[in-house]
Amino acid sequence: MPDPAPDGARQNGQIRLAPEAFGAPGAGTARNNGRMSEPTAQSDSQHADVPRVRHAQPSVGSLAAHRPHTIAATVSDLDPDIDADLDGYDEDAQAGYGGEELPQGRFLDRERSWLAFNERVLELAEDPNTPLLERANFLAIFASNLDEFFMVRVAGLKRRIATGVATRSASGLQPREVLELIWSRSRELMARHAACYQEEVAPALADEGIHVVRWNELTDKEQSRLYTLFMHRIFPVLTPLAVDPAHPFPYISGLSLNLAVVIENPVTGHEHFARVKVPPLLSRFLEASPQRYVPIEDVIAAPKHLQELFPGMNIKQHHMFRLTRNEDLEVEEDDAENLLKALEKELMRRRFGPPVRLEVEESIDRKVLDLLMRELKIGESEVHPLPGPLDLTGLFSIAGLDRPELKYPKFVAGTHRDLAEVESASAPDIFAALRGDHDVLLHHPYDSFSTSVQAFLEQAAADDNVLAIKQTLYRTSGDSPIVDALIDAAESGKQVLVLVELKARFDEQANIKWARKLEEAGCHVVYGLVGLKTHCKLSLVVRQEGDNLVRYSHVGTGNYHPKTARLYEDLGLLTANQEVGADLSDLFNRLSGYSRRETYRRLLVAPKSLRDGLITRINREIQHHRAGRPAYVRIKVNSIVDEAVIDALYRASQAGVTVDVWVRGICAVRPGVAGLSENIRVRSVLGRFLEHSRLFAFGNGGEPEVWLGSADMMHRNLDRRIEALVRVMSPAHRATLNRLLETGMSDTTASWHLGADGNWTRHATDPDGQPLRNVQEMLIDARRRRRGTATP
């Protein structure tokens, strides 16, 4: 593959990029780097200057949907970067931001970028230096991520193609090309994923005394024990469903494991097909004996057990299969008199979405596969044959085993030092700590959520001087102390307003439940604005102090979710600043009533002012640079695909401004192209915690400006959500956040580097083979040193 620089040469004053140079379908051959190939094909020889080594320690990383390994991990726990709305690129809509015309082919493909992200997750599972049970956890995360990708992104793309509304992507690919890329690349990654489990992780688990075995590997005693378990706990809930003229092909629910059974009537000699669904509420792996586990489907499919399900019949063959359906929601809010009722109805319809993927055991009989494809109306390209067992999300239960020596060392967050001078069992006085404009910058999970944000709301609920609490809830836990505090506040007579986002993907049902519970307790519950999701993370407490009303605020990057706050990396600002308090009052009034306010004192708010506010600041850095003043742009986000923002970054780079982008998952920026983006660097960090904070820093001519908040640089965030960024005013806090950004982008920090061709290269060791710094471990150790418990 040629170096991208020549394709970035100016022709008649305009840069032209050759799309085929950047991994368009069929553009190259696969690069084989041991077990860690990159998502787009190219030759080994083009990367001879990049050291490729085994890694001496886990690299830091990012997950699109990091399933916690210490709690029951379901899709509803997550805040994924997956949206079914596949925006076509409207060049005319982006042209209003000024500057000379930028070249075609300057954006990386979003879907390819997401698949590359999930490959980075897989690389941590493949890395033998990752703790063993964490490798199992990353395998489960990869599988769960891919499930969600098919349920939402692939399903949405297929729907748009079918209805004729899909348009070419910003990368220049047509919808059918994107779909074929997804099928091809996901098939490769699924094969690698299965091989990693079969050839590496499962044998390593066995070496540590944790055996995940198949039925024929069990001893007679173990099989006998499981027969008893089958008859008493499993058989009563199984429902074999025949398929014949009197029994139509049964409905197959999304993500369920199913057994396709071919039986023969010994009297007539006729063969029949039947389906047995694996009960989803039973354990995925059953313990046959201490530290020996067998998949539940193997227990159901054991010959003796199938005979119990089909007595008097001959069992000819059986095969496992798993179907993925479109599970995205489409709620017509403008036509719905009651959003809650409309959403409940749509949740019922979600169960019956059309199929988008069929996973089968690679040993499946062709006639059985043809029957499944015909009845499920699914094409050959959507069939994924894999070695068993299917559905490795079940490895979450294995990763949760109590074997701490096979996991990352345990870390328990402490109280932030600005909230409590000395660690103690009593909760800190949050209001006292914030008086006098003493802002507190929180960094979770390194700073305890329970003794900061949770304590803030619990104290507000119990404080007789607090008159009102206003709160946004996007996702929270099933036993949420946040919800309990709001209920306590309402029941004690305080005014409580709660913005519950009913449309938080895969948390809709839980949020409906909490909305009703809050309403019953006397809280004022609203669902935000029609057509917009309320994604901002805001709390406002109004307190009577003498003759004055004082407003205390929290603006964060993460959900008010105590469980995921122990696993997600997030930032938050606790403040008594009255400008911030006034801004939150105005914003809550807009969300709960009627207001056209679009400008704020210390906030940038989507969908009106956030994109324009950031682009204005990026453009201002160009002027600072030209005037010889300090200028830079530093961004940390989960995803960046918004063309207008990216184009502003390209223009800043062309002007000579240094641009650093630290991205967790999807990235459409093409860095390092001569004449376009040679001043842009892109890094990705992945590790034990989910990098989830959003942060924006500008050199501003020597007076640094820093913002934090809830918004990613995506169309949905900037155009179809209520998002909020708050400006950080404390010089010490700005310096802390800039140091964090510099550390994440440093060449001495373990990370993945994005190239102009869209390929990510892992950097975990230096040229001497020594491990690079792990930013998450550095932050953990800093907190331990503060408490005198640092590792030597």
TrEMBL record:
Residues 30-45 have a biased composition (Polar residues). Residues 1-64 are annotated as: Disordered. ATP binds at residues 145, 568, 664, 692. Residues 222-398 form the Polyphosphate kinase middle domain. Its cofactor is Mg(2+). Its EC number is 2.7.4.1. Keywords: ATP-binding, Kinase, Magnesium, Metal-binding, Nucleotide-binding, Phosphoprotein, Transferase. Pfam families: PP_kinase, PP_kinase_C, PP_kinase_C_1, PP_kinase_N. Residues 107-213 form the Polyphosphate kinase N-terminal domain. Residues 430-596, 603-766 form the Polyphosphate kinase C-terminal domain. An intermediate of this reaction is the autophosphorylated ppk in which a phosphate is covalently linked to a histidine residue through a N-P bond. One of its GO terms (molecular function) is polyphosphate kinase activity. Mg(2+) binds at residues 475, 505. It is an enzyme of class 2 (transferase). It catalyses: [phosphate](n) + ATP = [phosphate](n+1) + ADP. NCBIfam families: poly_P_kin, PRK05443.1-1, PRK05443.1-2, PRK05443.2-2, PRK05443.2-3. This is Polyphosphate kinase. It comes from Streptomyces flavofungini. The gene is ppk.
